[in-house]
Every structure is written in structure tokens, then in C-alpha cells.
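Re-run with default settings, no changes from the original entry. Doing this only to confirm the output is reproducible before filing.
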Amino acid sequence: DDFIRTNIVGTYTLLQLARERKDRIVRFHHVSTDEVFGSLGETGWFSETTPYSPNSPYSASKAASDHLVRAYHETYGLPVTVTNCSNNYGPYQFPEKLVPLMILNALEGKPLPVYGDGLNVRDWLYVTDHCAAIWTVMNRGTAGRVYCVGGRCEKPNLDVVHRICDGVDRLAPPLADGRPRRALITHVKDRPGHDRRYAIDCTRLERELGWRQAETFESGFEKTIRWYLDNRAWVDRV
């Protein structure tokens, strides 16, 4: 219900308000996800021309909101742009998400639950790179156009968890029993509708608008781990 209210009804409400005040709207930017495209096999990438094939209620609701935004551009001439991004990570991410959850559990010596075999592949995008992409599209993008935003950083979830374990081992005090934090990894039952692989081709954004990622996998995760270790007060508040 929350997905439907937020993603479909919420987007519709914003579009209606923007339509009513169209003379004051320079750009209506809609942030979407690569999940709307479904799941990839071992090869290939999502692009702006990939057919929609959402596999979960969340991604279906996001797909519906994307279609609404496009329709308001075609029907009412609303100056919209859309970005479909890959998995974000970085400072201030809510602790229930994979990366902060693993950092915080590793720090405290708690189990690190990994869905299934942990080989589901995601394209990892540092949050400030994503923000820069959105700002680039809002300022220089073409109305009615879609832009895919990726990190060019495909990694299986298990590799990400290993990176986090090793980083916390290096930057934080050791566990009381002396074990490496990789020993905390616990495989749990896979979640329903868990897409196997996402990967983004962000060539349009790079070629047409000149955007580039500033962070690598190594630099981005180093900054992220350090941030959560240094900002425990924020974590405790939320």
C-alpha cells in the first residue's frame, strides 16, 4: 500500500500541481530506478530503450510513475526529465539498506545476513555522483528525455559485503574473539522477486551531457565506511 500511495498517487499529485502551474515550471524531474527494467542475464546492460519488465510490487509502482511522467509530457507539454539510476550508497543512507546495515553490524559483531547465494549483481553508484547526474540533467537535459545513471561498477552482493568486512577490520577495533568480520556472514533465504542482475549503460548521459563518475568502487566504499564509523550519533538518532 505504501508503494502505491507514494509512487503512483504521490507522483500523480505532484504532476497535477505542476500542470496547474505550468507557467511557473521550468523543469519537472523524476527520479526512478533500474528495477523497472526487470532482471538481466549474465550479459548486456539496461539502457533508455530497454523495455519495462518490473518483477516486484515496488518496481511495478515505480514503472507506473515513470509512465505517468512521460504521459504528462506528451499530453500536456510538461517539461519533464527522467533518470533511472542504479543502487546508491554513501553517507546518510538509512541503516536498513544493505551497505549501512553491513557496516554497522560488522562494527558491532552482529550477523551479516546475505540473501541466497549472495551472487545477485548490482551496479553501485556513489550518492554524490548520482546527485551530480540529477543536477546535470535538470540543467542541461532535453525535456521529455530519459537518462540512465550508473556507476559502471558491477559487483555481486557478496563481494560488497567482503569489501565492507575488510574495511571495518582495517578501520575499527578488532572483534573481541579475534575473528575476521567475514566470519559474521550468514546466508539467509532469498527474498521473493529478487532480480539476479542489474547493470546500467550510462553512455547517453556521458556523451550528451558530459557527466562522469567521480568515485571508484574503492574510493566510494572507503569514504562510506569511514563516514558511518565517524557518525554513530546520527545512526543512533535515526
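The CA atoms of residues 71 and 211 lie 27 Å apart. The chain has a mean pLDDT of 96.
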